[in-house]
Amino acid sequence: VQLVESGGGLVQAGGALRLACAAPGILFRNYNMGWYRQGPDKQRELVAQITSSGAPNYGSSVKGRFTISRDNAKNTVYLQMNSLEPEDTAVYYCNAAFNRAYWGQGTQVTVSS
Questions:
Q1: How far is CA 28 from the centre of its chain?
Q2: Alpha-carbon distance 47 to 56, whole Å?
Q3: How confident is the prediction along the chain (113 residues), in pLDDT tens digits per residue?
Q4: In the 8-state DSSP scheme, what is residue 16?
């Protein structure tokens, strides 16, 4: 099973990006989906999660700026990131969790000041 992230890139502070994670090969609707990130010299941290029933949960540093959503028909989870800050610079990883966990390879997000 391979999760495929897309949408990362370079953006100026205050800008926006939308990440997508496609998850073919799993029964997507059963999985809780999440986004994690790991910045330079930092531990991996939770950014946002969305349960199989669609309930979202956010890390405190992104609450009010990021929005997670899912499209079960497309086996895809999204992360809309607004008001980006240089501190948001990190590799962003997609996670799928149900009876086991899967991870994507990560997509780089760089926010310039």
A1: 15
A2: 11
A3: 789 999 999 999 999 999 999 999 899 999 999 999 999 999 999 999 999 999 999 999 999 999 999 999 999 999 999 999 999 999 999 999 999 999 999 999 999 99
A4: -
